[in-house]
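Lecture 7 notes: from sequence to structure.
We start with the chain below.
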Amino acid sequence: MDRLAKKYLRPRKIPSTACSGCGLGQVQKKVLLAIEQLDLAPEEVVWGTGIGCAGRQSFNIWKGDNFAGTHGRVYAIAAGLRVALPEDKRIILFAGDGDAFGIGFSHLMHCARRNLDLSIIVADNFGYQSTGGQYGYTTPGGYVTDSSPYGNHEGGWLQKGIDILAILKEAGATFLARHSSLEGPAAVASIRKAIENRGFSLVHIIYPCVTHFGAVSLKSRDKEEIFRWFEGLFKENAGLYFKSGVYHDGTNSRPEFAAALKAWTKERQEEAQHG
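Predicted structure tokens for the same chain:
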């Protein structure tokens, strides 16, 4: 068993049931490396999960406290926990692109607006791969999927002139980053910064899906070929290109919602006591 898995994850969830060649494990390992670098124990972290591949593989995987939210609701649950729990308790949410940028997008935006102290890792496999490979909110335009046999004709959150991270920045997020699951220390460093930031943090990590996106969209099940294609997304070229690294670092630039609410409540209580 992997050292990090043994240290942080529940044995009955290892090995993963993810498809062979799935990059999701790479994303999870980077989160565990960041947690270890911060010297956080399992009892210091609450791990929340969403729906889809990311939710299914991460549900109840953490040795400490876990929770899951159905269909975009993980952020609403996390908001309540953030207010209820002590400030030193870290809340890490592991969600997929559909859960974060689709059905849960409204909740996500309000967490950013409030600047809730949440560290959100969005593991993005370019579509609804857990339900058969339908195109989603980040599927590249023109790519064939099970629900777009002539190519995805819709514009998503990742296209020329539109970037979901720009929208989240305007909504009030205080730390944002984007990486490939194939990256090493740089991605871990961004996740670590996200956990350290006392405010809304989101790290968007794009990872390879071999079973659906690879087989249907890229017309290949060759793992090396698919991984090289995803790696190429972060190298400047004439086609799809995503800049890797920190998108926005406004760490501690805005009051954190839960702490501010508790302070405000205390002030109102003191006012009431003194007439």
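Points to note: The CA atoms of residues 4 and 29 lie 8 Å apart. The beta strands are 45-49, 65-68, 90-96, 118-124, 158-159, 162-163, 175-180, 200-206, 245-249.
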